[in-house]
Automatic annotation (TrEMBL):
Residues 15-174 form the N-acetyltransferase domain. Pfam families: Acetyltransf_3 (PF13302). InterPro entries: Acyl_CoA_acyltransferase, GNAT_dom, N-acetyltransferase. This is GNAT family N-acetyltransferase. One of its GO terms (molecular function) is acyltransferase activity, transferring groups other than amino-acyl groups.
Length: 174
């Protein structure tokens, strides 16, 4: 497969989303096993058990809310990562908000997958009755900040995490 040229990079790629399966824990563990992918997520590869718990939690979110962090697949049904929405899971930050997010394996970067999948996420959460979403992005994560801009999100707040890192809360009314 060749890399997209600038003219094809603007083309919206085919992206499929599904509720994560138990097997997706292994796929997420594999595709996220790259230092650049994990730079803003703890800096190192997470244990498989983290993804087993995360995929199980997302299945519960889908059953309870009608949305979750879905497994993102390309046109050939290869796992690229995840995108979707979930209630903000921490006791700090935008408590009670619905957070959208995405994480791609390194091989899928720069092809428009995150933006295309995030747009589908916005359609799905709007259909589920959500009226506003947030995206929490680490300062310095320019790729994710660019996705928030493509979605039309606006910077609402700069915050400090419990570990002392700076981040941004972007918001979008649906």
């Amino acid at each position: 497969m060749t890399s997209p040229t600038p003219s094809t990079a603007e083309h919206t790629p085919v992206v499929k989303l599904r509720v994560p399966t138990e097997e997706d824990a292994y796929a997420w563990h594999r595709v996220f096993d790259h230092p650049e992918v994990m730079e803003f997520h703890g800096g190192r590869t997470a244990e498989l058990s983290v993804y087993e718990e995360l995929t199980a939690r997302q299945r519960r979110h889908d059953a309870e809310h009608g949305f979750c962090l879905w497994t993102m697949l390309d046109e050939d049904d290869q796992v690229l990562g995840f995108t979707g929405a979930q209630p903000w899971p921490h006791a700090w930050g935008p408590e009670g908000a619905i957070e959208i997010g995405w994480r791609l394996g390194r091989a899928a970067w720069g092809r428009g997958y995150a933006t295309a999948a995030a747009r589908t996420t916005l359609e799905r959460v709007r259909a589920a009755g959500v009226s506003e979403v947030v995206a929490m992005v680490a300062a310095g994560n320019e790729r994710s900040i660019a996705v928030t801009r493509r979605l039309g999100m606006e910077l609402a707040e700069t915050f400090t995490t419990p570990t002392g890192k700076t981040g941004y809360c972007f918001k979008l009314a649906l």
